[in-house]
């Protein structure tokens, strides 16, 4: 009789005690995910998306955008650091100095070679299961955004203008993806 290998399970609290060594440690349903520091194009995309969202949210007094590293804890065994999160005013009570507890309005991941599988599978499932209203997977190589909502079985693939409306009474946010990809891949 073969014995199954024991896979260590982690909690968010355990992962928080890991060293600050330039790696990103995340835990999803007890499984540990470690990512190396991202490259220049990735960081430019994080900066530009976060800046544009923050300007929009401030202008419309709707909330704020925060870049990684910033933790979102869903449960004791699931804490991640999306590249950018959007927190609307109604979600502020769940925001502390150290983390957001529960789903942000939008979670955004800029995928890289080392994060493709995690971002498209484990994180997507986590965000959908936990009720994140929108999850955007920004693919710099393919020059597109895969937009996921909780009930989706397939993403909406956006290549031109990404339009998001946080509430019916707020004007839409528009992100020109062609310009974003041109600026981040310079």
Would you give an account of this structure?
The protein is of the alpha+beta class. The chain has a single domain (38-184), classed as Alpha-Beta Complex (tt1808, chain A), CATH 3.90.1570. It is built from 4 helices and 13 strands. It has helices at 12-16, 40-59, 116-129, 177-184, and strands at residues 24-28, 31-35, 63-67, 71-75, 78-80, 84-88, 99-101, 106-110, 134-139, 144-148, 156-158, 161-164, 173-176. The chain has a 6-stranded mixed beta sheet with strand order 3-6-8-9-10-11, with helices on both faces. A 3-stranded mixed beta sheet has the order 5-4-7, with no helix packed on it. Strands 1-2 form a two-stranded antiparallel sheet. It is globular, with a radius of gyration of 17 Å.
Key features?
alpha+beta; tt1808, chain A; 4 helices; globular; three-stranded mixed sheet; 186 residues; 31% strand
> Treating each run of at least 4 consecutive H or I residues as one helix, how many helices?
4
Distance between the termini: 57 Å
Q: Over all CA atoms, what is the radius of gyration?
A: 17 Å
Low-confidence stretches: none
Query: What is the chain-wise order of helices and strands?
Result: HEEHEEEEEEHEEEEEH
Average pLDDT, rounded to a whole number, is: 92
Shape: globular
């Amino acid at each position: 009789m073969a014995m199954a290998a024991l896979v260590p399970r982690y909690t968010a609290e355990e992962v928080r005690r890991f060293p600050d060594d330039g790696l990103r440690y995340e835990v999803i349903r007890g499984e540990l995910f470690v990512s190396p520091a991202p490259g220049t194009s990735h960081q430019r995309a994080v900066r530009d998306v976060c800046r544009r969202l923050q300007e929009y949210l401030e202008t419309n007094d709707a909330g704020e955008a925060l870049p990684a590293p910033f933790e979102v804890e869903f449960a004791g065994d699931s804490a991640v650091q999306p590249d950018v999160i959007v927190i609307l005013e109604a979600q502020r009570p769940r925001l502390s100095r150290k983390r957001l507890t529960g789903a942000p309005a939008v979670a955004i991941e800029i995928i890289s070679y080392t994060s493709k599988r995690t971002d498209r599978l484990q994180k997507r499932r986590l965000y959908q299961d936990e009720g994140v209203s929108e999850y955007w997977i920004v693919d710099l190589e393919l020059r597109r955004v895969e937009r996921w909502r909780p009930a989706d079985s397939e993403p909406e693939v956006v290549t031109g203008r990404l339009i998001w409306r946080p509430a019916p009474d707020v004007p839409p946010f528009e992100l020109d993806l062609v310009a974003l990809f041109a600026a981040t891949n310079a």
